[in-house]
């Protein structure tokens, strides 16, 4: 998911900047909702931060998207593969890039932390997401949707523009669950402290 292809020449791409107007609308609508519901500034800033994170997630996962024949021809020889064998790509990255720790950090740690904010944020907003089982299913579904969308992009451009890897789903889900556990840990500490302050 984090394997990018660099442009060798100037070609037409759909850039992530198309997300900026959507982000602006989201910020304005969120501000209006928080104002009507009289939510605190911290709630609004939390929502804005999550909206920015979602745009960053979409940028990393899907953009840029080639829309010109020259772009497709220039990227057609990219050696991106599909992997449906759990942990296969992780073992390959670890064994082939021992001298290049930055690649290991980008591919493994990058995918691991990608859904970490989701695991922290969703339980705060949605009561149902406070269940570990439900949260796991949500994170797993997000990972699968991202990889499926990348496969659809591959079909649209006519070659493996993005890698589709089961290991990405595994790492995304585990990272998101770590965020969920961090959220639960903070709540366990925060609630007793808050109750003591009220006494």
Task: Sum up the structure in keywords.
two-stranded parallel sheet; two-stranded antiparallel ribbon; 199 residues; mainly alpha; 8 helices; 4 strands; 4% strand; 69% helix
Radius of gyration (CA) equals: 20 Å
Class based on secondary structure composition and strand pairing: mainly alpha
Strand order of the largest sheet: 1-2
Oligomer: single chain
What sequence of helices (H) and strands (E) makes up the elements? Answer: EHHEHEHHHHEH
Q: Biggest sheet, open or closed, and with what strands and sense?
A: 2 strands, antiparallel
Percent range for β-strand residues: under 5%
What is the number of helical segments per DSSP (H or I, 4+ residues)? 8
Given the C-alpha coordinates, what overall shape results?
globular
Helix content: 55-70%
**Mean of residue pLDDT?**
84
Low-confidence stretches: 4-9
Distance between the termini: 50 Å
> Can you count the beta strands?
4
């Amino acid at each position: 998911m984090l394997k990018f292809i660099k442009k060798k020449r100037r070609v037409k791409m759909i850039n992530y900047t198309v997300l900026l107007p959507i982000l602006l609308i989201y910020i304005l609508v969120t501000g209006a909702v928080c104002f009507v519901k009289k939510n605190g500034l911290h709630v609004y800033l939390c929502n804005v931060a999550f909206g920015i994170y979602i745009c960053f997630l979409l940028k990393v996962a899907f953009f840029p998207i080639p829309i010109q024949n020259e772009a497709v021809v220039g990227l057609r020889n990219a050696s991106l593969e599909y992997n449906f064998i759990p942990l296969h790509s992780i073992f390959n990255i670890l064994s082939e890039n021992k001298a290049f720790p930055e690649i290991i950090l980008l591919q493994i740690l990058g995918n691991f932390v990608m859904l970490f904010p989701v695991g922290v944020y969703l339980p705060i907003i949605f009561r149902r997401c406070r269940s570990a089982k439900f949260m796991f299913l949500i994170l797993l579904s997000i990972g699968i949707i991202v990889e499926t969308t990348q496969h659809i992009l591959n079909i649209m451009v006519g070659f493996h523009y993005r890698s589709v890897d089961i290991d990405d789903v595994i790492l995304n889900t585990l990272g998101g669950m770590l965020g969920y556990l961090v959220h639960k840990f903070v709540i366990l500490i925060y609630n007793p402290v808050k109750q003591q302050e009220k006494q």
